Structure formats: C-alpha cells, structure tokens
C-alpha cells in the first residue's frame, strides 16, 4: 500500500496492535523515507474501524524511544556493560548447561505472560520444553476465575459478534470499563442506544461511559455476586424465569434455587449499598425486558469470591432466558478464537516435564522450591510491577543466581537481571495476532520499520540459544512455516497464511450468537446451574456468595478496621498494564482518587500529598477528590514502575475462588496526609531510580 501523490515518497503499511487488550486493532503505519511518522487505525478493520486508543498510538514513541535497549547488556556490579550477541548467548548457554547438569530442568524458571499476543512468541515456550521441561509460571493476574466460571456454567467462555448488541433491548455493562479497556465497544453501544437499547452500567466507580448510560449502579467493591443472586431471587419470586430454558436447556436449577432464599432485598441492599429501587429495576430488566446482553469485565473476579460472582451473573442471565438468543449472552471473553489456532504445534509441550508455579504466588514458591530455582528467564512480562505483593517477588528473584530478561526497556524487572537481551518491537516484526478476547478476527503483523540498534526477534534469540545447546533443528524453521502450522485448523474454512497476508484481517469461523443451538460444552451438554465438574475440582457445585474481606464499614457486621478503605488498583488509561510507564507524561507520585467522605474523615485535601499504607507497605500519592465512586473506596491505576510508587507493594497474593486467579482487588488500606518534605523525599527516590 503506497501513495506517490507528492514529492516525498510516503508509504502505508498495515499491521496490528499486539497489546494485551480486548480489541486487537488494525493499524496503518505511515512511513516517510525510512521513518514511521504516524500510526492510525485501519479503516478496513471490521471491528476497530479506523481509530486507535492512545496506548496503541504511542507504540511509535516506544519504537523510537531513547530508553530502548540497543544491544545485549551484562550486569557489572551496579552498572551495565554492552556485550555482543555471541558473548551474551554463549555465556547464557553455558549457564543453562551448568544448571541442567547440576540441578535439572526444574531449576530453570521461565516467567512469562502475555504482554504481546502474537503467535511466534510461543516459540519461547518451545525452547524450554526442548530442554526436557522447566518450571514455568501459570495462572492469571487477569481473568482466570471468570474463565473457569464460564467453563463450569457453559463449558467455555464465548461472546456474541459485536454487531449483535443492536438486537439487545438492554445492555448491562457489568464491571467492564469500556472507555479505557475496550474502547471500540463504544461505537457499537452508541449505535444500539440510538436505536433504543437501554445501557446500564454496574461498576463501583463511575467512568466516562457511565455518564451516558441510562442507569449507573455502584455496588460496594467485591459484592457483585450478592447483587446478582439477589436480583435472581426477585426474578424467581415474581415468576420471571424462562421455564423452557430452565427445564429443557439446563441442569441444576433445583440445587441453586433454595440458596437464593438467603438473598433478601434487605440483605442485598445492606451488603452491596445498592438501593432497593435499583435492585428491583435490574430484576425487571432481566426478567421482563429482554433480551439483555451482559458484558462482563475481569475486575469483579479479582476477589476471593470473584469466580462465583461471575457464576451468579451467568445464572441470572441464563434463568431469565438471556442466553443463546439474539441480543443476549453473558460476554466475558471469546475463547473460541484461540481454539482455532494450533498453539501446541508451536509450543510442543506434550512430552515436556513442566513444574508449574502460579503467577500470583511465584515468590513464595521460588523461595520454597526443591530443587531450587538456579536460573530465571523473564519474557513478555514485567512481574515486579504487576504481581501482587511485589516486594516479596523482588526478594525471591534477588536470590536466584543467574537471571536473563528479554525486553525492549530496562523495566523494574529487567533491572534485576544479569543479562538483558533486546527484543524487537511489533512495528519491526512479522507475525500474527490472535489474542482478542472479544471479536472473531485475527490480524497479520507486517514489518513497518527498520530494526533499531541490534535488537532481535525473540524467535531468533531462542533459536540461537538452541543452536548452542544442540537442538537448533527443533527451533529454527522459516517463520512462515510456523505461522502456517498454527493456522492449519482454519485452512478448511479458507483461512490461510497467504490470505491473511493479503487481506490483513480475517474472520475465524466463530458463530455470531453464542450457544444459539443449545450446544453447551459442559459434560451434560446443557447450561449447568450446578456443576459436577466444579465439584470434581473441589469447588462449590453452584454459585455461592463469598464476601470481600474489607467489611469494616458495614454497620453491625464488623468492628472498624485498621485499614478501613477498599483499594481498587484498576487498569491504567494511558498504559497497557506497565508497558508505557516509561514515557514522560506519567505523573509522579501517582494519583489516588478518594471520596469527599474519606477526605473529611482523614483531613486530606484535593491536590495534596498523602500516605497510603497497609500491613505490606506504603506509598506517597497525590490526592484527587471525586465522588464518582463508592464512598469507602480509594482508586489507583496499576502499572507505575518504581519501587515507592508501585501499587502492587500493597496488594495481597491471596487467590480468588476459582481457577488460578489472584484476588488483588481485595485490598484494604488506610490514608493520611503527609508533609511536603516526605513527598519530596519519595519523588526524588523515584526519579533517581528512573535514571539508573
Ligand atoms: S491497546 Fe487495544 S484499543 Fe489500544 S490500539 Fe491496542 S488493541 Fe487497540
């Protein structure tokens, strides 16, 4: 795609955004000479249709950032020594061989996550499986309790095609902050609203989108499950259930129904702080004003009862006949897209001997490991900022003798490594993205820029290490061959690599309406209000309510606590998790949003500095007073890099109830004013770390 209508040659290259996001946008890179000068949304992308969020647009800033690592680095005391690729790879291969000989493959930890959602990144895992296995991080900081809930209830998490929102009479956006994390949903919601669909937002904090909704319901954080079960009870008591669905397409209603008796209107209003009228309105919408489409976000499942909260909402939508119908559905994620891609052919895990540490609890598992962890590789993640109780992880990593990071920047995690290997940026890569959690499209990643410095693709780095370790033939195939292997299941449906490269974005054969034929993937083949699978896995058969641990303020239920406020550490607006926190516009210290009530209780003022703390640590923050959320909740964005401003120093490592999900939103804290002197100290400490 080239334009030659002026004197300077300008080219346009279509590619895609690999950030860990619902939308997986199509991008058009404008190239003047050899420089990418602008990124725009690809107008031809059927869903993201021509615009990017600020995180995607800033991919260009990261491409040309002065802070990018240009050559392999080796630690020398407290500083870094640039070294050649040959030296870095020879030395790392030597360490791998030594650890394999002395302690075996479980002594090598591969800590990875999904900071980039492209297929060729799976070759990293292949490398470690070719060693015979390794220890690797599993589970989720993000969404696994909800995925597990959907597996128990439906057999799999599936979504409707975004266009189907036009068929909904009501859309309930429950815990998904679309204006920050799923911005391309907004045009679909807007079109539906213009056609008469009512939009209801359920979220403890107001957001840009809730201002335009017909109704905003703000439950106390972590009580969504009580709200859903209370609403379901009202529907049952008023005869608003869909009898055909309950009797013919589901199992287990008779087990769930008696449990609803505990969720009286009095109990639910006291527990959730939602008014009786709003609870009744929500029941009326689900029970009598369908079809209702329910769009869920992952925040509500980052609690000890988070998976069951999702199960309760699944049950509410199903029992009222809002599942398997046009305009309905409980849309938490779209897992069918990943099923069409043969990841195993890339990873080759089948015969590997893998020891698993969970991402949220890896610190304690490293410290207690037998055989011990002797070598660490970190790829596609910055766990020191992202993992709950980050100070504990810092301690655990510091005890590992040899540490290797693959990254573009010296993140807080990379700074702990002995070797940092610079990897390429998505605008320099060829690959494809299949990581959408929402729509059924995959996108070709086409190289748009010359590689900066001596950075290398991750597949090259691990291929070169494999050459040194004697299994290069298992790693080093042409990348198109790997991509074709991954797409092989789609080929009978006309989805080939050649077509993907030609068209840029291709739809996979995923149905527009989830479960329209009643073909649930559960063991019974029906929707399961009570799940044998859940029981086999040691979980409750039905949805239950597990309250959050921050209950201090509920009158008559507990004594006031030392840490009286809930701390919500939400997804940042300007960064994909921690991926853009290196850019200069990020405020330092970070901002904490508090209510007028908390400000009154504690004497803190708008714009002033405050100390936020709990039993794990403390942060200095700048206060912003806002009454757009629950009055006993403090809201901060996650992702700040620096020790001293990283919210995960405060978040707990406890687990959610389902899957291998962390419950980092179940966090309590206290807040008090601090002096200007303390603030200057904290800010200076952060800045000096930044300059390391
Ligand atoms: S971060 Fe998400 S919304 Fe933003 S450009 Fe990338 S894919 Fe699109």
Describe the structure in your own words.
By secondary structure, the chain is an alpha/beta fold. It has three domains: 73-138 and 342-433 and 441-507, 3-Layer(aba) Sandwich (Rossmann fold), CATH 3.40.50; 145-335 and 514-536, Dimethylsulfoxide Reductase, domain 2 (3-Layer(aba) Sandwich), CATH 3.40.228; 565-690, Barwin-like endoglucanases (Beta Barrel), CATH 2.40.40.20. Helix content is 29%, strand content 19%. The chain has 24 helices and 28 strands. The protein has an eight-stranded mixed beta sheet. A six-stranded mixed β-barrel has the order 23-27-24-26-25-28. A five-stranded parallel beta sheet has the order 11-10-9-13-14. A hairpin with a 7-residue loop joins strand 19 and strand 20. It is globular, with a radius of gyration of 25 Å. Mean pLDDT is 92; it is low at 2-6, 552-558 and 685-692. Residues 17, 19, 21, 23-25, 48, 52-53, 55-56, 183, 576 line the site of iron/sulfur cluster (SF4).
Q: What characteristics describe this protein?
A:
about 700 residues, alpha/beta, Rossmann fold, Dimethylsulfoxide Reductase, domain 2, Barwin-like endoglucanases, 3 domains, 8-stranded mixed beta sheet, 6-stranded mixed β-barrel, about 30% helix, about 20% strand, disordered N terminus, disordered C terminus, binds iron/sulfur cluster
Q: Kindly state the mean pLDDT as a whole number? A: 92
Total helical segments: 24
Number of domains: 3
For the record, the CATH architecture of the largest domain stands as 3-Layer(aba) Sandwich
- The low-pLDDT segments are 2-6, 552-558, 685-692
CA distance, first residue to last residue: 42 Å
Using the alpha-carbon principal axes, give the shape: globular
The biggest beta sheet reads: 8 strands, mixed
| CATH class descriptor name of the largest domain | Alpha Beta
Strand tally is: 28
Strand content: 15-25%
What structural category arises from helix and sheet content?
alpha/beta
Rg, Å, rounded: 25 Å
